[in-house]
Design a protein that fits this description.
- By secondary structure, this protein is an all-alpha fold.
- It has one domain.
- Helices cover about 70% and strands about 0% of the residues.
């Protein structure tokens, strides 16, 4: 969550600086790259953080209406689907990073791979958080302690 705050703070500050420097007639062109980087990393780190909190990449409606072994089964399936998405993000993101070394960003001339690295990083975090949820769910049950459990 701290990294999400850093990303959104950096994004907001860089946009503000970009607007102010343009209004002053002395634009800093490299600020657009900084803004784009904060935005992209914020999106992917935010997706990973939301996965950890069960707020994203999670199909909850069906499983929450169940209890016992049915719920265990569906919660496990849900998380295995998310794990599959995470593995795809890691693998295909890695391939994208490798491909990104062939293209450069202007005006800094840094490889596009620096942006694409957010994809496999997000995939690793989502996989880690999903594994954590699976282990905790198998040990302690999948009911969310912050929500009132419905009988049935």
């Amino acid at each position: 969550m701290v990294l999400c705050g850093v990303a959104i703070g950096g994004f907001s500050i860089s946009v503000m600086c970009d607007v102010v420097t343009r209004l002053l007639g002395r634009p800093w062109l490299w600020l657009q790259e900084v803004t784009m980087t904060f935005f992209i990393y914020g999106v992917f780190i935010g997706a990973a953080a939301a996965t950890r909190r069960n707020d994203h990449l999670y199909l909850a409606a069906l499983a929450e209406s169940m209890s016992g072994r049915k719920r265990l089964f569906f919660e496990t399936i849900n998380r295995l689907v998310v794990m599959g998405v995470a593995v795809c993000m890691v693998w295909f993101g890695y391939l994208n990073v490798l491909d990104g070394f062939r293209s450069l960003r202007m005006p800094s001339m840094t490889p596009l791979a620096s942006l694409y690295a957010a994809i496999p990083m997000c995939g690793v975090l989502v996989a880690l958080f999903t594994l954590e949820q699976l282990v905790n769910g198998w040990k302690h049950g999948f009911a969310d302690p912050n929500r009132a459990e419905k009988p049935g």
